[in-house]
Specification:
75% of the residues lie in helices and 0% in strands. The protein is an all-alpha fold. The protein starts with a helix and ends with a helix.
Length: 167
């Protein structure tokens, strides 16, 4: 009985290499998450541009920051789409967290002399979207960094023959 049990126990104790199908599934999930993050960043940019056009541009200091936030949202969405690296994910997560933090400060004590109201247009939506985006970007960055060979971070699937040739 120990003759048949020992190899099974060794197999259980050894780190398991993912199969090609598992690597492909991880790559696909990581790609879909990255594309979702790109869409969320563009949505944040759109919301800030919309609010700027609807009158926030007239608020001293905060008005230009809304336009800057809109441009940054669109630009960082393009960066994450074109340069799918964990560093890009962390940078965009930092931008989104800063935007969320500015909104929270504006809601609680005011920012540059302007205090936002929770009942203002798109405030609740912005809180939800920005929170989800920060979490999604951090998750994507971790997943992209964890995939062997960083092939998910490079935006292409793992080619098992090329992977074996490097070993």
């Amino acid at each position: 009985m120990t003759e048949h049990t020992a190899p099974g126990l060794r197999r259980l104790a050894s780190p398991r290499r993912p199969t090609a199908a598992e690597r492909g599934g991880r790559w696909a999930a990581t790609l879909l998450l990255r594309l979702g993050c790109v869409a969320l960043l563009a949505w944040i940019g759109y919301l800030h541009l919309h609010l700027w056009l609807e009158g926030y541009r007239h608020i001293p200091t905060n008005g230009p920051l809304f336009l800057l936030d809109a441009v940054a949202g669109f630009a960082l969405a393009a960066v994450l789409l074109a340069w799918p690296r964990p560093l890009a994910g962390l940078l965009t997560a930092g931008y989104t967290a800063a935007t969320l933090g500015a909104l929270l400060i504006s809601l609680s004590v005011g920012l540059f002399g302007f205090r936002e109201s929770i009942s203002a247009s798109y405030v609740v939506e912005s809180l939800a979207i920005e929170t989800i985006t920060v979490l999604a970007l951090i998750t994507w960055s971790i997943l992209a960094a964890a995939i062997p060979g960083s092939h998910a971070a490079r935006g292409r699937p793992l080619n098992s023959s090329a992977h074996r040739a490097r070993r």
